[in-house]
Every structure is written in C-alpha cells, then in structure tokens.
Amino acid sequence: MRRFTSALFLAGLAVLVAAVYQQMNLAVTPLAGDAINASAGQQVGAGNIVTAVVLAFRGFDTLLELTILFTAATVGGLVLGKPRADAPRDPDAGFILQAGADLFFPLLLVVGLYIILHGHLTPGGGFQGGVVLAAAFFIPVLARPGTTLNHHAISLIEGLAGASFIFIGLLAMFGGAAFLTPMLDKGELGTLLSAGTLPLLYLAVGLKVGSELAGLLANLAAAEATD
Amino acid sequence: MEWLVLLIVVVLLLSAVAVLLMKNFMAALAMMSVVSLGMSVLFVILRAPDVAMTEAAIGAGLSSLLFALALRRLGLWKED
C-alpha cells in the first residue's frame, strides 16, 4: 500500500513538473525584475534591491518569516526541555578552541553588526548578520560548556526586537499609509543613514534572529548527551 | 567561467551522493556542508550575493552545527 501511494505521489509530481516545463520559457527574464531594478532605488532609497523588496515592498512577508523562525525556535526549546541538575556536563574544550573562541568573539560581533547595519547598501542584512551574531555568542559556550548564556536577557532582546518591528509597521498606519510602509527621509542613495526606516527594521530583524538562534543553539548544547 | 561552474556542479553532485553512501555520520555531515559551500560559490557566480551569504551562513554554518548537536544528543557523534 505504501509503495502504491509513493508511486502515485511520484507520478503526480512527474505530471506537475512536465506541466511546469511545458509552460517554461527560459529565454524570457521574469516580468517584474526590470521594473523593480529601475524603480527601487528612487522609490525606496536602498542601494541593495533585495533589501528594497524584502523590507519595503514585501515587509509583511518578512514579518511572517520571523514568525516561522520564532515558532520553530519555541518548539525546539519545548521539545528539548531543561536538563536535570545532576546531568553530566561536557569537559572544557581544548586550548585551540578556547583561544579561537576568545579571538573570534569580537571579530564575529563586528562582522555581524556590519552586515546588519549595511543591509540596505550592500548584500546581506538582518538574517545573514543575525546568524553571524548567533555564532559569535554560541562559540564561547562551545569552548566552555560550564558557562551558559543569559536566557533571560536573550528572550528580552528577542521580544523587544520583534515588538519594535511591528511597532514601526504600526507607526506607518497612524500616518494613514499601509502596514510597514517605509517612512522617514530617504536621504542620499548609498550613504549609511539613508532609506528611511529600512535600517531600523533590519536592525530589529538581525537582533531577533541572532538572539533566537543563539538561544536555540545554547538549548541544544545544554541538552543531555547520551553516552 | 563555464569550466568553473562545471567543476563546482560535479563536486556538488559527488558530495551529495557521498552524503548518502557514507557510513560515518561525521563524514556525512562534512560532505553536507561541502554541498552548501559549493552552492554558495555557485550563487556568487550567478550574481546573487545575498543568497550566497545566506547559504554560506545558514547552510554551511548553522545547519551543520544544528546537525552536529543533534547527532551528539543521539549518541552518534563518534570518530571511528
């Protein structure tokens, strides 16, 4: 029975792919691409077109993406639970990892914040920089399993960042525009303080992603290792 | 440029097959991050630096770390 259903699924997939292949015209570029490339710089003031799409044109999708990440991290924490007080703890890592962790922590912090703050100018942004921040805070835990992250502070940062994203979106509604419409002065294209609220939104995204992932990794690392 | 893309694609396919065939979980995990790294180089060549950064940070870095921690939790993190 299972084989039959698998074969049925595969057949359906094949029909779907064939239909898509029939419709596909590889020589034509996607319709909206040229229009967005031409207008995003002036309309939004962001040098990075991807940021213009992610935060200005499709800010609501980004909010939902954050929600998905939040749900995944919450469920992960729920499944893992708290380790017992008498659970065996891993010994400290070797010299290379400890020294490397001390060296890498400030470097990764600067790189992550740079990627987040320049998200509207260069490739990268809140999600990528947030992951780098999470790695920066997790590596010391990996080197010295005895130390733990301050879960209280992490959840505080996470909640504040998520709330400020929604709050910036709501501020636009008070002005009569739609939810998450970009506000403030667009500034000069290509400077750090430009593109209105987009850098603020990306900062919120970066802090939320970073604190969430750091918390999830620390939770997973603290989970009891089976021998 | 074309030979570089060809080389990367061949390495990607080989390491993706190697993930399936490896008996050792650590080696399979390393092969998986090779796939992600190759993908991110491919994205750079295709002029999608944003996607390349995401792939390198999440695909090669974070998900390998998550898999490693999950393997340790399951007691499958062995060197032999």
Give the topology.
The complex is a heterodimer of chains A (227) and B (80).
Chain A (H helix, E strand, L loop, with lengths): L1 H22 L7 H14 L4 H9 L1 H22 L14 H23 L8 H18 L7 H24 L23 H25 L5
Chain B lengths: L1 H20 L3 H21 L3 H26 L6
Helix pairs in contact in B: 1-2, 2-3
Q: Could you give the order of the helices and strands of chain B?
A: HHH
Tally of separate domains of chain A: 1
SS strand fraction of chain A:
under 5%
Describe the biggest sheet of chain B? Answer: none
**Proportion of residues in extended strands of chain B:** under 5%
How many distinct folded domains of chain B? 1
- How many distinct beta strands of chain B? 0
For the terminal residues of chain A, how far apart are their CA atoms?
38 Å
Kindly state the percentage of residues in helix of chain B. over 70%
Low-confidence sequence ranges of chain A: none
Q: How many runs of DSSP E, i.e. beta strands of chain A?
A: 0
Number of helical segments with 4 or more residues of chain A: 8
Helix and strand pattern of chain A = HHHHHHHH
Oligomeric status:
heterodimer
Describe the structure.
The complex is a heterodimer of chains A (227) and B (80). The model of chain A has no long low-confidence stretch (mean pLDDT 81). In chain A, helix 2 (31-44) crosses helix 3 and helix 6 packs parallel to helix 8. Chain A has 227 residues and is mainly α. Chain A has one domain. Chain A has helices at 2-23, 31-44, 49-57, 59-80, 95-117, 126-143, 151-174, 198-222. Chain B has one domain (2-74). Chain B is flat and about 45 Å long. Classes of the chains: A mainly alpha (227), B mainly alpha (80).
Question: What are the key terms here?
Answer:
heterodimer; A: 227 residues; mainly alpha; 8 helices; 69% helix; globular; B: 80 residues; 3 helices; 0% strand; flat
Short synopsis of the structure:
With 227 residues, chain A is an all-alpha fold.
